[in-house]
Specification:
heterodimer; A: 376 residues; alpha+beta; Butyryl-Coa Dehydrogenase, subunit A, domain 1; Butyryl-CoA Dehydrogenase, subunit A, domain 2; Butyryl-CoA Dehydrogenase, subunit A, domain 3; 3 domains; B: alpha+beta; 4-stranded mixed beta sheet; 4-stranded antiparallel beta sheet; 14 helices
């Protein structure tokens, strides 16, 4: 079953997506996700490498650097994969790794492109991405090194990441940190979304070479903005996939659960709730597809569309999960049923890579900048 | 001459005729009828527009793709499109909502189902602008349940006697005929006892009243029929087979998914200009709370547009699902128009309750509130759309039906003595 984020795919996209779905369902079905949620094992690096062979992790890079899109629009291709991953609640930092791959492609030092980027695209390593405020962290320069001290809060799936790209909110400077460095320590957090794991990353005088500072050709903030747009689109695409699956399960349940002598889906109270949920899902697919297309083309309205997509999907996806929960009734309260995995994932994802309000404020900021430009 | 050359030649002649005969569209002239405005058709205005339509008809540019034996030109659709493209730069005849219904829906439905005699009488007059035909669809007691109409025609010798009433007829007050959905057989299930009649609106026993709406406009009408006499010649299509004709009509009415394409595309960077104007008018443009409300509406606006585009894509890849998919667009309007109107009220913070002049943003917000449930109700309520999505897209089981198999007479009687027991 495909999420069908776009009504129509080209032949190469279809082949890629078929492979991703097949590999994912064989390598990490929902039962596997559940085992992992109960225990504490990181996700399977073997599956990551297999997916990398299909090209999943290099879509936002270039052919010269070992990656490249399949359709000419890497963000669209990555969003297609994100949606199928979300539909199967796949663990692992696909969104963050994709963002870091893109950042290193356009602003990484040559050495990092040869080394770190190559390993990310090959699936031999993974990376997370975080944006920090000046208050929580000290960054000092000592000769040819950066010295970092402080705590980076709630980094997703840090235990399976070799690298953390840390972005400083105030100036847009970005530093690539090896998580195996001396003085770096991961402290696991309790979390809502049990399909991912989160860690506080404590940095105690961790030193990294100055060359680990990213050097974009344009402004640092422009690159960070673009990273936010890519992350917003891919995170929203994952949420769309999760919503799509949750709805599918609720619809199946409504067809088979009998009450008062009828399948419950024949009652309008249930049917209408599911129709409303389906409207949310179709709207979410429409806006995520449009945003992916625009961001991938570098269109002038790409950043705005990405924020519209993330704001809409974050809020409405929680509503969708509530609706499905209501259809499942009491069974939805059991750990054994998958409903809570979807609710947890969607509610948690809503606040990752910018909350709905953060993206609304971003829309205003962009609109103000645009109107200033127009008046100059 | 090749086909392309013939078409180009036709276009050039059309342009020349338009330039010689029609007034070019100035910056203030309105090219299209707007549903929202109060478009009152006085007899003078009607006569003026009919004369203009006659001019177009006499020149051979009315009904370009309609059959030649009924006053059309019998040319391919491409010729009609070419003329329309050229005509977009000129002030063309505008017969208002009734004119739109006549040409876009009723005329085409009659062409598809009417007898040759009926077509010979009416179609040329439709094309020349002499005859306006509106839809007499809903009963006051049957709206979303269209097949449940109770307006009836009873055979009496060689004539039919019509009694009942219709409502929500756009522009009937200045039209000549109404295509009327009527029950002709009460002893069969509801969909199988319906017939369409072409009813002259000036016939004895017909009363047309305009309905003053909550927004002050009056484009809708209601009609009463008291022993109106009709004949077999007034029937469109076959006796008791009116539901088939209704399907054709609904197809023309929907215009094959044209709504989405026509919807203007909001710029995602230009945050809800009307709501920003409203916030500015009440001094709240810098209020973070007001900004959040405005952006919420803007996010919904942009997403709705992209839903429409997605639906067009889905319809293209599976045309059999087009009808069911159209329900998403209708449901989105029905759900989000009221949400938007409420957001505007909250932004206005009292500014939509009183205002000093009719063109103020507060007045617009108040009007939007009054109009906002239009799409939630007209042409099938949101509940109908949810049923359609639930059953035809999601494949959920149908509601038990109490009226589809039994004679309609029995259905009405049973409903009046409703006990909640089936069978």
């Amino acid at each position: 079953m495909s999420v069908r984020l776009f009504p129509k795919l080209d032949e190469n996209q279809r082949l890629m997506l078929d492979a991703v779905v097949r590999l994912t369902e064989a390598g990490c079905p929902l039962t596997g996700v559940r085992d992992r949620a109960d225990g504490s094992a990181p996700s399977d690096p073997g599956l990551r490498r297999t997916l990398a062979d299909v090209g999943c992790y290099g879509l936002l890079s270039t052919e010269e650097l070992g990656g490249g899109s399949v359709s000419g629009n890497g963000v669209v291709d990555a969003a297609l994969i994100a949606a199928e991953r979300g539909a199967r609640l796949q663990p692992g930092p696909f969104v963050a790794t994709s963002v870091v791959v893109h950042a290193l492609t356009v602003a990484g030092a040559n050495a990092h492109q040869a080394d770190v980027l190559t390993s990310l695209i090959a699936g031999d390593a993974a990376a997370s991405w975080t944006v920090v405020d000046a208050g929580s962290l000290s960054v000092r320069r000592h000769e040819q090194e950066w010295v970092l001290s402080g705590t980076v809060a709630a980094v997703q799936d840090a235990d399976e990441c070799e690298w953390l790209l840390m972005t400083l909110a105030q100036d847009g400077n970005q530093i690539l940190i090896p998580l195996a460095a001396d003085g770096a320590k991961l402290v696991p957090l309790e979390r809502l979304d049990v399909t991912h794991r989160f860690f506080d990353v404590h940095l105690d005088d961790v030193t990294v070479p100055v060359a680990n500072l990213l050097t974009p050709a344009g402004s640092s903030q422009d690159l960070v903005d673009r990273q936010f747009s890519i992350a917003a689109v891919l995170a929203a695409a994952e949420a769309v996939g999760a919503m799509d699956s949750d709805l599918r399960l609720a619809v199946e349940y409504a067809k088979t659960r009998i009450a008062f002598g009828r399948p419950i889906g024949s009652f309008q109270a249930v049917k209408h709730r599911l129709a409303d949920t389906s409207l949310i899902v179709e709207m979410a697919k429409g806006i995520v597809a449009a945003a992916a297309d625009a961001v991938g083309r570098g269109a002038a309205d790409g950043d705005a569309l990405a924020s519209v997509a993330k704001a809409f999907v974050s809020e409405r996806s929680i509503e969708a999960a509530h609706n499905c929960f209501q259809v499942f009734g009491g069974i939805g309260f059991t750990w054994e049923h998958d409903q809570h995995l979807f609710l947890r994932r969607l509610a948690s994802d809503a606040y990752l890579f910018g909350s709905p309000n953060w993206h609304r404020d971003r829309l205003w900021k962009h609109a103000d900048t645009e109107s200033r430009r127009a008046h100059v | 001459m090749s086909e392309a050359e013939k078409l180009a030649d036709y276009r050039a002649r059309a342009r020349a005729w338009l330039e010689a005969n029609m007034e070019p569209l100035g910056p203030t002239a309105k090219s299209r009828f707007s549903f929202a405005e109060d478009d009152d058709f006085t007899p003078e205005r009607l006569a003026e527009q009919q004369a203009l339509q006659r001019k177009v008809y006499d020149a051979g540019y009315a009904g370009i793709s309609w059959p030649a034996e009924y006053g059309g030109q019998g040319l391919p659709k491409a010729y009609e499109r070419a003329f329309e493209q050229e005509a977009a730069h000129f002030v063309m005849p505008n017969l208002g909502i009734a004119g739109g219904t006549t040409m876009g829906v009723c005329g085409r439905t009659i062409l598809a189902h009417g007898s040759p005699e009926l077509l010979r009488t009416h179609i040329p007059r439709v094309l020349s602008g002499e005859e306006l035909i509106v839809q007499l669809f809903s009963d006051p007691e049957a709206g979303s349940d269209l097949a449940g109409v109770r307006t009836q025609a009873v055979r009496d010798g060689d004539r039919w006697v019509l009694n009942g009433s219709k409502i929500w007829t756009s522009g009937a007050y200045y039209a000549n005929y109404g295509m009327c959905l009527v029950r002709t057989n009460w002893d069969v299930p509801k969909h199988r006892g319906l017939t369409w009649f072409l009813v002259p609106l000036d016939a004895p026993g017909v009363t047309v009243q305009r309905i003053k709406q909550i927004n002050g406009n009056a484009e809708f009408c209601t009609e009463f029929f008291d022993d109106v006499e009709l004949t077999d010649a007034d029937i469109i299509g076959e006796l008791d087979n009116g539901w088939t004709v209704a399907q054709t009509m609904l197809m023309f009415e929907r215009g094959g998914g044209g709504e989405a394409a026509a919807m203007s595309s909001p710029d995602p960077r230009d945050i809800a200009p009307d709501l920003r104007e409203l916030a500015a008018a009440v001094g709240r443009l810098d209020d973070p709370q007001a900004r959040r409300l405005i952006t919420t509406a803007h996010v919904d606006d942009v997403v709705r547009h992209h839903l429409s585009r997605r639906l067009v894509g889905l319809m293209r890849s599976d045309s059999r699902q087009a009808g069911a998919l159209a329900s998403y667009g209708k449901l989105a309007s029905g759900v989000y128009d009221p949400i938007r109107a409420n957001l505007a009220l909250e932004i206005a913070d009292g500014g939509a309750s009183t205002w000093q002049h009719g063109d103020s943003p507060g007045a617009h917000a108040a009007t939007d509130l009054l109009n906002c449930r239009f799409m939630a109700i007209a042409g099938g309520t949101v509940e109908m759309q949810r049923n359609s999505i639930g059953e035809r897209v999601l494949g959920l089981p149908r509601e038990p039906s109490f009226d589809s198999e039994r004679p309609f007479r029995e259905v009405v009687r049973a409903a009046m003595n409703w006990s909640g027991k089936v069978g």
